Amino acid sequence: MFKKNRSVVLQNNQTKKIDKAIKNRNLIKRLAIIAGLFLLLLAGYGGVIHHVNSVENSKRAVFIQKKPSLIFFYKDDCKYCNKIFINILAEKEMNKVNIQLVNLNSKYNHDRYKGEYLISAVPSFVLLNKDGKETERYVGSDMSKIQKLIDQVKEMK
Length: 157
What we know:
Blueprint lengths: L1 H56 L11 E6 L4 H16 L4 E5 L3 H10 L7 E5 L5 E6 L3 H14 L1
Parallel strand pairs: 1-2
Antiparallel strand pairs: 1-3, 3-4
């Protein structure tokens, strides 16, 4: 009788170990899938930034229009500019906000606009009113402050 009970206890312990091993394998599979998805998203985001910057870099000379708009001065090698670039582009393209993008890595843009708009650091934002005159300026990457400028452009329409 003792041997029979002992074999049942051993079987229960083995079953518990097998169940635990199966759960661990399932957890490892799930973590591997999540990590893979995260890496795909990260690679995709980096690809979008690279694509957007390469498209903007191909525009050698930018001619700033003197109308109600927000001018975004940036450099494609600036980490703070890259951090906010996709949000700015989304506002410009998807919400049809009049944002003018000026890449200061372009020699023409750098030589012409850095002095004209007194740009000392990037990212820089200059808000133009209906007469094309500067009304406000912000240097930095705080999206809440940038969003306030974008909202002002929306109100000018």
